[in-house]
Write a structure and sequence with these properties.
The protein has helices spanning 11-17, 33-41, 58-70, 84-92, 106-116, 139-149, 159-163, 165-169, 181-187, 197-212, 226-235, 247-258; strands at 22-27, 46-50, 74-79, 97-100, 151-156, 176-179, 216-217, 239-240. It is of the alpha/beta class and 263 residues long. It has a single domain (11-262), classed as Phosphoenolpyruvate-binding domains (TIM Barrel, Alpha-Beta Barrel). It has an eight-stranded parallel sheet with strand order 7-6-5-4-3-2-1-8. 41% of the residues are buried.
């Protein structure tokens, strides 16, 4: 904990509240201490842990979440459903937020808020273990601080999600928006064409809504240089990093570069 007087701290959300950028690293399979250490050492702020496309055993996932927090990172979990048991257990295991993929309807967002937040905001059941660093904390203080600390991120990746973006983002408990451009392109009839002008335009329309509502959002196309990064930050973009790549794609890219001299 960075502040011993608090029961729960979310470094990434603190940065967003200060209108600062957050650098996100996406993890699919490699739930290893080395990943946490390297991600922290290289300057990232948040770990986004995938559970839509891969399977994790609960023991390993819990250890990874706790280790991420111990190293000053904010672990949030990408989930494919608003199921109460799933959401509650992930947060009780120490996750500092949920990234809801295929976000499409206001009802989905309402359900996420209901299961993520303690009363009077939501209906999350009280448990204090990994989520509170196993402290013997004051329950009232913890519930109040947890409601402020937990992050809700929406992953918009369908035509329907784009069409309903204004209603989705209007929920005051939404902290951020990212995109799944591959699935978005497919839903618009452009399989594999996430850089199609219509797909980029759809993402831009969501970005404008997010910025107008003061909600953190990632760019339609990530910057390729420092000048573009600064321009996007000035626009109000706050979420950056390889949110659309797996750690094995990054490994492949680095491994191929290492062989450049031999080809």
């Amino acid at each position: 904990m960075s502040d011993p007087s608090t029961t729960i701290n979310n470094p990434a959300k603190n940065l967003l509240k200060s209108r600062k950028p957050v650098l996100v690293f996406n993890v699919f399979e490699a739930l290893r201490p080395s990943v946490i250490k390297i991600v922290k050492q290289t300057g990232y702020d948040m770990l986004m842990i995938e559970t839509e496309h891969v399977l994790h055993d609960e023991y390993t996932l819990t250890n990874f979440i706790i280790s991420a927090r111990d190293n000053g990172l904010s672990p949030i979990i990408t989930v494919p459903t608003t199921d109460r048991m799933l959401v509650s257990r992930l947060l009780d295991a120490g996750a500092l937020g949920i990234n809801l993929c295929h976000a499409e309807t206001p009802d989905q967002v309402d359900d996420m808020v209901r299961w993520m937040k303690y009363p009077p905001i939501g209906e999350r059941a009280l448990f204090m273990g990994a989520n509170v660093d196993y402290q013997n904390a004051d329950a009232e203080q913890y519930c109040r601080e947890a409601n402020q600390a937990t992050m809700l991120v929406l992953k918009i990746e369908s035509r329907k999600g784009v069409e309903n973006a204004e209603q989705l983002i209007a929920n005051e408990h939404v902290d951020g928006v990212i995109f799944g451009p591959g699935d978005l392109a497919a839903s618009m009839g452009f399989h594999g064409g996430w850089q199609h002008p219509e797909v980029l335009s759809a993402m831009e329309s969501v970005i404008e809504i997010a910025l107008a509502n003061g909600v953190a959002v990632e760019p339609a196309e990530f910057p390729s240089n420092k000048t573009e990064y600064e321009r996007q930050k000035e626009r109000g973009i706050q979420l950056f990093g390889p949110t659309r790549e797996t750690e094995y794609q990054l490994l492949r890219s680095a491994a191929e570069r290492a062989l450049d001299a031999y080809r």
